[in-house]
Amino acid sequence: MAHILILLLKILAMDNQKNQQQQSSNAVKDPDQWKTGGEPMTGAQKSYLNTLASEAGEQVEEDLTKAEASKKINELQQETGRGLNNNNEDA
């Protein structure tokens, strides 16, 4: 009986380690490394960028790539404070 419990614990530990490795591999990548980074920005990116740009009093180019839009979003979030992990209810 003890052998079965030890085996089950080992299997659970291996499964947990595998899950942690998968989560690490899904970490946020640099937009320059995205396979689809050169594609046109998405509608959601465009909408959010327009919101951030409006709050920052800036204009945004309409023909950005996904990667460029992501970088601009990060830049404008830093500038406006919107969307940052600061538990802001209006973010």
Brief rundown of the structure:
Helices cover 58% and strands 0% of the residues. The protein is an all-alpha fold. The longest helix has 24 residues, at 2-25.
What does this structure look like?
By secondary structure, the chain is an all-alpha fold. The chain has a domain at 38-84. Helix content is 58%, strand content 0%. The protein has three helices and no strands. It has helices at residues 2-25, 43-56, 66-80. The radius of gyration is 21 Å and the shape is elongated. The model is unreliable at 87-91 (pLDDT under 50).
What is the strand and helix layout of this fold?
Blueprint: H1 2-25, H2 43-56, H3 66-80
